[in-house]
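User: Please predict the structure of the protein below. I'd like the answer in structure-token form so I can feed it into my own downstream comparison script.

Assistant: Understood. Taking the following sequence of 470 residues as input:
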Amino acid sequence: MVKQAKQSKSNVVSATVVHDVYDYVDRPGIGRIYRAKVSVRTLATLLRKAVVRYSPKYQRGFKKVEDEPLAYEVMLPITDPRLQINVKRAEEIAVKYLQEDLFSDSIVWNARIEDGFSEPEWDNETKELRIHTSITIPDSAHRHLAYYLLDTWANNPVSVPDVTVNDRIVAADEIRKRLKGFDPDSASVFVHIYHVTAKWEGWLYDQLNFDQKAPQRAVGIALNPTKTPARRFVDTLMRSSPVFSDTEVETRANNIGTDSRKLTTNSTLVGAVESFKPFLVQLEDEEEKTGAYTDFVEFVGALFEEYSAHVPAVQPNATAQTRNESRKNSFEISNIMFHPLLRLAKELWGAYRRDQVDWRIATEWKDGVARIAGAKTINGQVYKVMSRENPEWIGKILIEQYDSNGKKLAPSLSNTRQTRQAALDYLVDIAGIRSFLSGKSKAKAHAKKSPIRRGRKSVSAHAGAKRARA
């Protein structure tokens, strides 16, 4: 519990009394850092009354940079819309709490050192900490706002919005159902309370946010493979396709080492399929009824197996030498190429579904893969399509460079959203499937057309994750 108290001597001095301050640690050169337990209701009340405030100067600042320096000196309520705090992110944290999926249990305050005011007074018997100075938020601003929102939603369920959590929309009605089991008075968080100057408060923010080395993205994906639709898809693909098995995909680093024989990284694959997250969510939602998710995973695996039949470097168990040679001379297995290839697979599968043709008996995708892995005559000279020497990659993923004297240098590889789109457009033309993808021509099949199977048993990672949660 936290409450405001007043002492009367020669002046009236307002103090904040924090109850349930169980202990502290003494840090050399920094002083005491106290730890308290505060209910969500109490925390929200303190934020609502601006007892605990945000300092733009020593934390994230404003969304729009202020020209007036004095604007940064004023401490503000955390709900001020000008602050550089992402409400959507705070909403996601709040819903994760309700979903019992939020591991973080603490927030951070600073009982700021201010001239003319006493330092905090802690009573070991009552476990009370009396603070005579401003209380600021040097870190965990989004968690503060998340708990504020939880209390606000509990008081006014009508205010609950739809919230995107891990790239999936959680409907307001579902959130309201979860709120019925939430009590802001009994729900608590730990609060670490520092007592440092405003300047050191800025140092604290810097250290908590920038000095701590974040793990490589690949490690996070490997440790929590079912967190997002993109991660779930890659996890399912790796468990079903020999091309992308865990012996072929690097899961502990974002890049392939020079002596590694790995094909690509899980980070690259997740980044590639993130470009069609809504599509994956749609397939997950209908998987139990139609089996479309599983069918799409199988198609992607089949497409890359077909690709491996033309490209030795893609084949399971290919040597490090084979793959390194491929990266040196071509774009066959370069990181950037997995983006357009996976999107190409998505577009092809979608076209087959549109035409109600089973891709297993269709010809476009296999013919297209063969053309992409094949050669093309350009200005009388034959080039492998994927060769780094292919001049048609210039202006797409290769950008021409010149020195200060206007001399042409070797082109540089550009891996951006625009260049990945340019690569996809090029592969569609090379594969000769633009008319098919647009619906102007129909799918060709080896045998009689058959609709995509319905009501298949799901083996998706999404379904498996839900069973595991249950």
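That's the full token string. Residues 7-12, 449-470 have pLDDT under 50 and may be disordered.
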